[in-house]
Amino acid sequence: MLNAYNLWLVKKNIDPSMKPKLREFVYNVAYQLLEDFGEPTTNIKGRPPNPMPDLIIDAYSRHYPVHTEMANGKRKPRDCYVCKHTTRRQKKRTRVVIICNECNIELCIVD
């Protein structure tokens, strides 16, 4: 591209103060090539995207975190369900004040 740029400058006899930058030249060449020879391709490699079924989308719209009920002006902390019942790591006790509004299960969102 550098050689093509230099040849183009010599052939066009462009004033050095007005010459475009190499980056602009490369962009213009690529743009012109795509304009002449570029075609949209439909040969996308890999598995085609699978749209989410309505059931899953509906489930995501129903499950969202909310704070627990307040008692005497304070939130009643509970144990996180995931941390308490995990089998992939050591079980731990995490006190949380956030639950899933649909399942009523305590969750620690940070971890």
From TrEMBL:
This is PiggyBac transposable element-derived protein 4 C-terminal zinc-ribbon domain-containing protein. It comes from Petrolisthes cinctipes.
